[in-house]
């Protein structure tokens, strides 16, 4: 090869290297950029939320029941991402990873995979409702309660579905015998032992003119507690059958004791 051919070959080699240099530099520069992009990529996970009998009160599914999907960033707080829920007659008791509440979600739980959670509920305890009963002595006077010794009207409070007769005070009237209670002053709508209170009520004492009594007869009344226990009088604390004494023509209900039975509401006598 001549000297001139060597020069030409050398120039060509230098030109080729110069042309390849930018391409090589670009390829080497791309690798760190791609690696950095992969490292900064944020993972997002789906969380399936079951209202479990309730309805959602926040988020896109407000007012709806069933299931609701939310997305949470990897490492994000699970509790903070969950929607609000409600259920009539129940109190919200938190979230659980199972429907029966055996694996509760806690505040320190973070999301690292797709997850399913269920709302948990506890039954509300209904507050007892009470109603006022206006009691008119109708010519008599009260002998117990806050208005003992007074005439006219008094007010008592009775739990919803409570026995009306059991809540009423004792009354007396000179020259008269107590004849029970009535929803009207004239006694045309009598109160019976099986009446229960479900609204504001008014009752009136009823009276019959007392006849002169000479050596009034006394009769024994056998009282069966029928599973209950005597709560007052000489037989307090006893169960089964007892005997009480009542004068002839006296009001039977007034002679009977108060009884209680655990887990039951007294419903009157029969």
Spatial gap, N to C terminus: 137 Å
Question: Tell me about the biggest sheet?
Answer: 5 strands, mixed
* Strand-residue proportion: 35-45%
Number of domains: 4
Number of continuous helical runs: 4
Helix content: 10-25%
Number of strands: 13
CATH topology grouping of the largest domain = Immunoglobulin-like
Q: Which blocks of ≥5 consecutive residues have pLDDT under 50?
A: 1-29
Quick summary of this structure?
The protein has 270 residues and is α+β, with helices and mostly antiparallel strands. The chain has helices at 3-39, 78-81, 164-167, 252-255, and strands spanning 44-56, 65-73, 85-86, 90-96, 115-123, 130-142, 151-159, 171-172, 176-182, 201-209, 218-230, 239-247, 259-260. The protein has four domains: 1-41; 44-123, Sandwich (Immunoglobulin-like), CATH 2.60.40; 127-210, Sandwich (Immunoglobulin-like); 214-263, no CATH class.
Map the helices and strands.
Blueprint lengths: L2 H37 L4 E13 L8 E9 L4 H4 L3 E2 L3 E7 L18 E9 L6 E13 L8 E9 L4 H4 L3 E2 L3 E7 L18 E9 L8 E13 L8 E9 L4 H4 L3 E2 L10
Parallel strand pairs: 1-5, 6-10
Antiparallel strand pairs: 1-2, 1-3, 4-5, 6-7, 6-8, 9-10, 11-12, 11-13
Describe the 3D structure.
By secondary structure, this protein is an alpha+beta fold. The chain folds into four domains: 1-41; 44-123, Immunoglobulin-like (Sandwich), CATH 2.60.40; 127-210, Immunoglobulin-like (Sandwich); 214-263, no CATH class. Helix content is 18%, strand content 39%. It has four helices and 13 strands. The strands form three sheets. Strands 1, 2, 3, 4 and 5 form a five-stranded mixed β-sheet that branches. Strands 6, 7, 8, 9 and 10 form a five-stranded mixed β-sheet that branches. It has a three-stranded antiparallel β-sheet with strand order 12-11-13, with no helix packed on it. The relative contact order is 0.09. The model is unreliable at 1-29 (pLDDT under 50).
